[in-house]
Amino acid sequence: MSFTWKKLLIIGLLTIVFIVPPLVMEIGTAVMNLLIVLFIFIILSQSWNLMGGYTGQINLGLAAFFGCGLLVTHFIWKAGIPIYFAVVAGGLSAVVLAGIIGLPTLRLKGAYFAIGTFALAEVCRIVVGNMFARMVKMPGSYAIDYSLIPRYYLGLIVVIITIALVYFVTHSKVGLAMVAVRDDEQAAQVTGVNTFKYKVYALLISSFLAGLAGGVYAFLRLSFHNITAVFSPIWTFEPLMAAVIGGAGTLMGPIIGSVFLVVLSEIFALTLGEAHLIIFGLLFILVVMYFPYGLVGSVDQIRRMMSRFRWSISKVQQKM
Amino acid sequence: MQTIANGILVGALYGLVALGLGLLMGAMKFLNIAHGTFIILGGYISFWLFDLWGIDPFLSIPLVIIAMFLIGLVLYIMALSPLLKLPNIGMRIDTSMLVTFGLIWVLDNVMTMLWTPDTRTIMTSYTGETFKFFGIRFSITGLGGLGVAVLVAIALYFILIRTYFGKHIRAATQDAEAASLCGINVHRIYLLSSGIAIALAGVAGVIIISTYSINASGGISWLLIAFVVMILAGEGNINAIIPAGVIFGLLEAGSVLVVGVPYRQAIALLVFIVVLMFKPQGLFAKKD
User: What's the pLDDT at B288?
Assistant: First the structure.
């Protein structure tokens, strides 16, 4: 783990760029909203990435952890406990949910894991939809002093925690074991890696992050007309798309993918309406088929192609 | 009794829904997440035929089969055939899952643009009519669905067991490399069977639109049902899919009596997960 000065400088600059502006000047509500949504997407796609990109277990039940974190945060906050504790509680509740439903499904392999988690997320959606048939909302007093700035900072803090957590996990022994599980589970098992244990670690951390994202969303929006909407598979699928388009199994990939997805959908929302999803879908298919390492990896691919090209040119020149 | 009858009628439909998915997964190891979306697409084609030319949904099935078969060929050439180059089967399943997942977004939104997000159904003169048989009510469209499901399953069985084409499919399922060494054109087999799989999805869509209703984003719930039935039948065990569908339908209908309508789906899915965990090879697996 070597921090070079260059890296530190970039991180410092980025933090200043994100922390200072809301304090000194007024950013429009639309931009603020967009940034917070972007934060939620980054958290969720990192969370999926830890499971799907690093450990190689395609989790289609992310929405359940997101929704669980959201509900718990919402009700704890409603009980008068400060939001920061409520968000942490939301994250922990998602971990508990992961312990209950995730551990059995982790026994499943490959595509069966994906189907199993998908089915469990649907079970959660149905059960919660039946429990909270009416609108779920905060009392009016919370809406009076509603401002986006604390939401922004909460989102920022959680994003920083997420990225740091994913960075440290993947640069540790645990991360190495996860990658080993992804690349060849049997070989990892033979060399003495307890694959099940590391899959559980990945699932627990990933669900914790998804729960935190739910907490941020609960803080952002005070009322939910239809609570099943936060359990809907869209909360699994869009982060998955962001992570894969950006590059699954890399730290920067999900961030770039989320920025790409959120910014493009905002641009196209005015001109194309829902049609931007068609473009995303096609792009997603192309990325999966031709750039398995996503946008991040494609930069490397192109660079390698360029260097090979240059090398062959120099060969030709030598011959002449 | 009424519950059992309903369960059987719904279950046959569930089996029909899962047939195409089971064929793709069993024969070619492609996991088609967009299966539910293709079902909806088939339903919409039938809706169009009914709306524009007044063709009865049950009579439109052959037309839908032809249209969806062509779509299946295009799907295989454009999206699935490049995946055959992947080194192992696990990767093929995962990647095909992701590719067809992107396809959901494309198709869903194309369908929303073409047919608006409204819920659509076909109202024929006999929709909602029932007839009584020993005091049990059967809906006519439900019975039609049962008939079509059984017919399609029998046809598929004969194609797979009695024709050379079916023999080739089964050979390619067992060992693609050895089959191609024996002079079977594996690519052609794959091409045709993915056409058949998508056509089966289309047939299921026609039955669904005549019995229930569909909307552009409803593919996911049907996909889940198809998954469940496929797992219950056991991967690659295509003949067991219709019985597995009936079992699932009975289970759902039975759980209505126990826990009430709202939790019906949840119970069925929980049972599915239990089966997945303790008997992942399916209920109908032959003992070795």
Answer: 44
User: Where in the sequence is the domain holding A184, given as residue range(s)?
Assistant: 28-319
Domain assignment present for A11: no
Closest chain A residue to B235 measured between Cα atoms?
A112
Which CA distances in Å does A313 have to A24, A301, A306? 53, 18, 10
Q: Dig out the tokens for B266 from the structure.
A: 């949840």
Instruction: Tell me phi and psi for residue B6, to 5 degrees.
Output: -60, -45
- Assess if residue A5 is contained within a domain: no
Q: What is the pLDDT of residue B193?
A: 83
Distance of alpha carbon B265 from alpha carbon B249, whole angstroms: 10
Q: What is the mean pLDDT of residues A283-287?
A: 83
Q: How many CA atoms lie within 13 A of A278 on its CB side?
A: 12
Mutate to test the interface with B, among A55, A57, A109, A115 (most CBs of B within 10 A): A115
What is the residue type of B243? P
State the pLDDT at residue B6.
Answer: 75
Taking only the tens place, the pLDDT of each residue in A119-147 is 888 888 888 877 776 666 766 666 666 77
Residues of B in contact with A115 (CB under 8 A): 227, 231, 276
Measured between CB atoms, does A179 come within 8 Å of chain B? no
Task: Give the 3-state secondary structure of residue B120.
Answer: strand
Considering its fold, how many domains does chain A have in total? 1
Q: What is the pLDDT of residue B170?
A: 77
Residue B137: phi and psi, rounded to 5, are -90, 130
Domain-embedded: residue A44:
yes
Q: Where are the beta strands (DSSP E) in B38-194?
A: 130-133, 136-139
Assess if residue A231 is contained within a domain: yes
Tell whether the model's pLDDT for residue A3 goes beyond 60: no
Chain B residues touching residue A232 (CB < 8 angstroms):
none
Percent of chain B with pLDDT over 70: 85
Nearest CB to A126 within list B79, B99, B266: B266
What average pLDDT does range B90-108 have in this prediction? 80
Give the HSE-up count for residue B91: Cα atoms under 13 Å, Cβ half-sphere.
Answer: 13
Q: Does B83 touch chain A (CB under 8 A)?
A: yes
Partner residue facing B273 (CB), from A111, A119, A283:
A119
The tens digit of pLDDT for each residue in B261-278 reads 667 777 777 777 777 777
**Report field, pTM of the whole predicted structure over 0.80:** yes
Give the pair of three-digit tokens for residue A119. 């089915």
Cβ-nearest to A123 among B79, B269, B276: B269
Calculate the average pLDDT of chain B.
Answer: 77
CATH number of the domain encompassing residue A197: 1.10.3470
Listed residue (B43, B9, B36) closest to B20, CA to CA: B36
Kindly report the average pLDDT of chain A as a whole number.
80
